[in-house]
Design a protein that fits this description.
2 copies of one chain form a homodimer.
Chain A: H1 3-17, H2 22-38, H3 40-56, H4 61-67, H5 71-86, E1 94-99, E2 105-112, E3 115-120, H6 125-136, E4 140-144, H7 150-166, E5 174-176, H8 182-189, E6 197-201, H9 204-213, E7 226-230, H10 236-248, E8 257-263, H11 264-279, E9 284-287, H12 289-295, E10 300-301, H13 304-307, E11 315-321, H14 324-334, E12 339-343, H15 347-356, E13 361-366, E14 383-385, E15 393-395, E16 401-412
Parallel strand pairs in A: 3-4, 3-6, 4-5, 7-8, 7-12, 8-11, 9-10, 9-11, 12-13
Antiparallel strand pairs in A: 1-2, 2-16, 14-15
Helix pairs in contact in A: 2-5, 2-7, 3-7, 5-6, 6-7, 10-11
Chain lengths: ~425, ~425
């Protein structure tokens, strides 16, 4: 991977893209969407090469399915790009402004971050999603996908680059790293001269590696050890319903819950109801001794590690706690800071939970599954940040921006 | 340095400080200011130990002067803390909010970052400034100053901790690392489990080391290779005045300029005027061939390295450029992204310069020396960010915050 060459090309492209007007960017996005559809056959045959490699390497059926592109899925990608085109352009927004006592006028205006690096795994649709979100927010991007999807990613990126160029923007607004070795990921982590931010999208291992090794500023995304706390005053049906939804509607995603905490005063009544709902999907419960005492031998004893684990599966840890404070302490200890929920009827409990729980999204009486750019009304999302610097929670195109100060005077000195 | 112990103590303190109300925080700040004044003798005698060490180690007079604490300087530090107390509390601000179609109510509220690490050099007043800014914004801090000021810093931190505690906040809101070895700085850079952000304050070497080695998210501050471009339509007196101010009013600071770029059409008239002003302070000019042709042999030939150097001294690089575009290209190549200025009478030049120059602060017709939290109306500043992630330009207490989403429902599931 020639990081110097890609970095310089991205910087040069960014200087044009960063000041391009919204019409030009939208025209490019429309061209990109149309080009994906027009080149569907080409993309699908590249994808077939990836699928064939996957089968040779014994890839699981579920992963093969995630990797597979069909005309419908390509139409879906094109549709995603059109949705990004329809979003309001964040660039140029005057965020604040004032006139200082000496007469200088200060504006803070929204500008692109510059060059965004994204390291991702598996699904080839990330290539078009990420490219579209970066382009709309005025950022050049350097994308590095996994080796499993390299033929698909190359085909998609090639089509998108050509389309962007046809609309008058530099092709290098979108660059894909063709080298999928571990070394190329490490090289990206050292591109602090060229990358303004690096966003890892994938499993906990990838994210940890990037956070630990990158000298480029990182936005940590997506690891979610999420909790529901059932307070003593909870509506038990509501609690069971929220827990069922948050655990089983899509267990493999980061906003699914992994542990429930149940107030001791309601545990005896609530746990059997919750249990019954979870049995519909054969959810395995790993509980503390008090959970076991109430629900019996079907509960597997929970270890400390269970409470720290993002199962991403039909497995749920459970602990009976003495108080709201104990629930908050448990969350402070084990949570990854993604999404937590309290089910309660009590005003003060709700207030205390929302102010004391230090996570990106804190819920009262609704499912943690709502932590999502689309559900929050941000449009498409580039990821869900679990760090506190720069962006926290679902990141839309606005979170792919920075700002600068513009100061106008007529000769003022200090 | 026991990072585990300090980290846990900071986290525990932050959970209390982060939800403390404004009255409590202000009471603590008032107590801290009063305690500095009441303990001035103690602090000054600790400072004398540092001064004695400095003299033994052959420290320069100018550095000894920066290190020295007097009753007046301590009163100044106390006054600084009182000014922070007077700032509006950013915590709890509702930044935005909406009701989604399914009835869930989403608010984004401002919260502290959590635990802020600061590695700084030299001046002991940073200890009280940083502690006050962090406390007001609800952040616990771990401060590591230089070995030159360790006795002073320990005395100051001890006084501040006690005062915070007397006002009902945990002493561990403010922790100072007593170990000033290089190893302790390296350990802080690896405290990603406990630190939410690490801010280096000091020279370019320190900042580079932190950016390259930290696994904690970093905010890069303060390196300023700043430019003034004198456009062909500039008011020459204004240009000379701004250049004189931006170079000589305080050459050692990051918002001082290091290079001037002069449009070829005005160079012959402007350069002698600029030169005359700069001669008042014996500023050394390092210029290109065209500068030399106009100003003669007193101009030292500028190397490529000169254009990349933050002199922080009475030295100024100069280049005659063919056009506004060439000036923008020069800045894109050499600038550290801090502050740049155009002196012009032309509307389109001003617009193009402000939109195309990618720096934290872009000026039209006034001095770059205004890049400062106080001058921008943010109150005291923790530093000037030259990166694009999270904060850019002068950072006040608001830039020491993050946000979280609070979502209220009545049983909604997805």
């Amino acid at each position: 991977m020639d990081t110097e060459k890609m970095g310089l090309a991205a910087k040069a492209a960014e200087r044009i893209l960063g000041v391009a007007d919204t019409n030009t960017k939208n025209k490019a996005l429309e061209a990109m969407a149309a080009a994906l559809e027009a080149n569907a056959d080409k993309i699908i045959s590249a994808n077939e090469a990836d699928l064939a490699n996957g089968r040779t390497n014994g890839m699981k059926d579920s992963l093969l399915d995630r990797l597979r592109l069909t005309p419908e899925r390509i139409a879906g990608m094109a549709d995603g790009i059109r949705q990004v085109a329809a979003l309001a352009d964040p660039i140029g927004e005057i965020i604040e402004g004032s006139v200082r006592p000496n007469g200088i006028k200060i504006q803070r205006v929204r500008v692109p971050l510059g060059v965004v690096g994204i390291i991702f795994e598996a699904r080839p649709n990330v290539t078009s999603d990420a490219a579209a979100l970066c382009l709309k927010s005025g950022n050049a991007c350097i994308l590095r996908g996994g080796k499993e999807a390299i033929h698909s990613n190359m085909a998609i990126a090639g089509v998108l680059r050509q389309a962007a160029e046809s609309a008058g923007l530099p092709a290098d607004c979108i660059q894909l790293v063709s080298d999928t070795s571990r070394e190329s990921a490490n090289q990206m982590m050292r591109m602090s001269k060229y990358l303004d931010v690096l966003i890892p999208r994938g499993g906990a291992g990838l994210i940890r590696a990037v956070v630990d090794n990158s000298t480029v500023p990182v936005i940590e995304t997506g690891v979610g050890n999420c909790h529901v706390f059932v307070d003593s005053t909870a509506d038990i049906e509501m609690a069971a319903n929220i827990i069922y939804n948050a655990k089983t509607s899509r267990p493999s995603v980061c906003n699914a819950i992994e542990t429930i905490l149940v107030h001791k005063d309601i545990a005896e009544k609530a746990l059997p109801v919750i249990r019954e709902r979870l049995d519909e999907k054969n959810v395995e419960l790993r509980g503390c001794e008090r959970t076991h005492a109430i629900l019996g031998d079907s509960v597997i004893p929970a270890t400390d590690e269970d409470y720290a684990t993002e199962f991403l599966d039909y497995i749920l840890a459970c602990r009976v706690v003495d108080s709201l404070d104990d629930a908050i302490d448990h969350i402070a200890k084990y949570s990854t800071g993604h999404s937590e929920c309290i089910v309660t009827s009590d005003y003060f409990s709700a207030e205390k939970f929302t102010s004391s729980v230090d996570s990106a999204a804190v819920y009262v009486n609704c499912s943690t599954r709502f932590t999502d750019g689309g559900e929050f009304g941000l449009g498409a999302e580039i990821g869900i940040s679990t760090q506190k610097l720069h962006a926290r929670g679902p990141m839309g195109i606005r979170q792919l921006t920075s700002s600068k100060f513009i100061i106008q005077g007529d000769g003022q000195i200090r």
